[in-house]
From TrEMBL:
Cofactors named for this entry: Zn(2+)
Membrane topology, record value: Multi-pass membrane protein
Any one GO MF annotation of this record: peptidase activity
Protein name: Site-2 protease family protein
Family under the similarity heading: Belongs to the peptidase M50B family.
Keyword set, alphabetical order: Cell membrane, Hydrolase, Membrane, Metal-binding, Metalloprotease, Protease, Transmembrane, Transmembrane helix, Zinc
Organism: Blautia parvula
Ranges where the Peptidase M50 domain occurs: 128-169
Main location: membrane
Gene Ontology BP term (one): proteolysis
Top-level lineage group: Bacteria
Residue spans crossing the bilayer: 14-35, 55-73, 94-113, 133-150
Amino acid sequence: MLRSSYYLQQLRDILYIAPVVLIAIMGHEFAHGWVSDRLGDPTPRMDGRLTLNPLKHLDPFGTLCLIFFRMGWAKPVRINTRYYKNRKSGIIMVSLAGPFMNFILAFLSLLLYGLLGKYGSADSVSVTVFIRLLYYSAVMNIGLGVFNLIPIPPLDGSNVLAELWPGVSVFYQRIRPYRTWILVILLASGALSRPLGTANAHIFNTLWGFVKLLLNLNPHIPQTSPFI
């Protein structure tokens, strides 16, 4: 009985997580493409990556990791840095655009979460469903944003570090064939759980603190960060 209840809860969680994962990935990759496009690079537009269709941005392994570990990655947007007036700053701006968009989406999710918690009817099934979706949206967007700041290819943090410290590019070239498996092993082994959980919890609590100040909320929703 306990086992069936556990699996039912897991299935219920996945049904909530799946749609917000698609939105988080779409926002992340669209931001990369949009910033590169604004810097004069037509490549993302020609590749069809300036779209809100999340299916254009999915990476199979990264999406599964995001669903099961709450940390993952999407299919990288192809860019051509020759179009940038300043290559170094252009790459850094494009790389940081994805995580920044996730943090914006997380904040908006928590803001709507707070509004529904304050003004919505606690007896309404639809309000309860939307509140849970918004909560998962905040969790997934923070997880995606923080994870992609890790300086391991193909994550965004590796592009930033390579521009700030060009010597690391040689190491990145050596591990490139194994990069996906390196990330999967790090996630599955739990090696990243504590440091990323701490970073995620800090950002979650900071964003939620802003929301509580803006809406003058009582501190009972949510009671604790989901990352610790």
